[in-house]
Structure formats: C-alpha cells, structure tokens
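Possible race condition, two jobs.
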Amino acid sequence: MPSRRILLLALSAFLGVAARPATAFNSCYDYCLDKFSCQASVTREEQNCHDTCEDMCRRGGVLYNTWNSSNPVDAYGAIAYGRESAAAGWAYGQRSAAAAKRVALTNCSAHGNDCKIAASFMNRCGAVAASGLTVGADEGASRQEAEANAIVACRRRGGGRCKIEAWSCAR
C-alpha cells in the first residue's frame, strides 16, 4: 500500500535525525526490519517493508549514516615477518585480532618458514623494519608514522641500516 510506504519513509526520516539505533542488531537492515516490524516478505505489503529497509540502509540512505556512526566496526591488522628468510605477510580490515594474525601468518608462510607475528594493530597502521637479523616493529596513526616508529624500534635493537620491509593499515 502506497500510504504505508510513505508513512515508513516519513518515520525513517524522523528516526534518521532523532534516534540512534540500538547496538544489539548486526546490521542496519536488521535494525530497520525490527523498527518497522517487517514480517517475512510473503505479501506485497511485507515485501514493500523489506524494500524500504534496503533503500534506507544503502550507502547514502536515511538510516545508513545513523547506523554506521553509532555502530563503528573495528578493523584489525597484523604483519608477520621471517628474520632469516625476510619473508613478509600482512593483513588488514579483519574483524578480529586473531583473524588478522592468522591471515598475516598464512601470507608470510607462502614465502618463508620462519614467520612470526611482528606487529598487530587495530584501526591504525603498522610497519616492520629490518637490518640483517635485527627487526623492529611498531604502529602509528598513518603509514608514515608507523614506518618512522618501526625504524626507531629497529635502531634501538642495534640495527644499523634499518629499512622498511612491510607495512599495512587497518581501517
């Protein structure tokens, strides 16, 4: 029914400005379905409710920014490095620290058999610097900051000519 769709859109405009979605929902779409009591899409009216939620939760939709700003997603990253093989592997944009470490180790292991996690970070950047067998790793708010911090960490461990071997940003 067109009147219900108009009512839903008007209500969504109000909700988009005045209310924050609860964090108990896994997605904007789930939140919207609950908020408007959308049932399983069997009838045309129920399908319209689902379609409206899809529209409101698309990038640029009425609920999209509200949902995402109140439910930020942390991004994890990691860098694995092999001191003797100089193999490196990294991960970014992972949903957990464990997943980031697993991906980084898997990627590094494809190039060497001595890989270990050198850096792990969340919503930041990380870098690994090495000079021979001396390795230093650190993080920073930007790639440049992470690389500078990794060079300093490498030099503090006695590295003479430290250079960046790998970097990654998790955002």
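Job #2 (started ~2 s after job #1):
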Amino acid sequence: MSPNSIQLLQSDMLFNNELMDTLLAQAKVSPRLRQHFDLRTSASDTSQRMLNALWPGTEVPVHRHEETAETVVCLRGKLEEVLYEAVQEGGEQTFREVSRQLLSPQEGLYGMQIPADVWHTVHVLEPSVIFEAKDGAYKP
C-alpha cells in the first residue's frame, strides 16, 4: 500500500459524496494531483481494487498490465482512457494512439475494460473519481 493512500479498515463502506469530496480535496493538494483509496480489506488480499481521485493536469505515464485486464468505472467527473500501440522508430520505442474513450457518468459512459498487455493512460478533463480493478498483486 502506498504511504499516501487512505487505508480501508471496515469491510462495509458506502461510496458516497462525502468520500468522493474528501478524495478529490486530497488529490487537489497532492503534487501528483491524484489520490488513491485502497479497497483491499487485508494484507492477504492480493487483488488490486481502489478508488482513484484525479484532477486535470495529473500525469499518468503510458503503461500496461501484462498479465491482467483492468476494469475502470468513472463514478464522478469526465476523463478519457487513451489506448496505444508500441512502435519502433529509429531504434526507440514510442507510442501511437489507437483509441480514446470518453468516460462520463453524466453522459451515460460509465466505464470500460482495458485488455491485458494494452498500453494506456488517462487524460482527465474535469475532477474525477474512478474505480479500478485488476487481478493479482501490484507489480511495479
């Protein structure tokens, strides 16, 4: 667990406006403009389940999860999930955008499944809170 995450101690918790407001307030003052909230209930839980509050301007490097798909559900706000393919140019790996999916619950666009091994990032359009889930323990 990250030292700046809020650890969930109860097994039953509502994802309500108070929680979303608190996470967004913490994200706003974070140097990275984001704050995650770990939803695992014990150290033996090897899943990856979290809420992630994000502000416009946060920089999430293009990355992939080689062994697991990622489920992303937008609970509040508006953002784009951007998918890429890796390309070799002049002996260097770069990325070419192949898809950009808007997620906005106000527009009925709630979430998506990002397949395993697909390069992706997020472009935050307005303060947002997402639910993320991946199989297996975190691997840096």
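The radius of gyration is 15 Å.
Logs attached separately.
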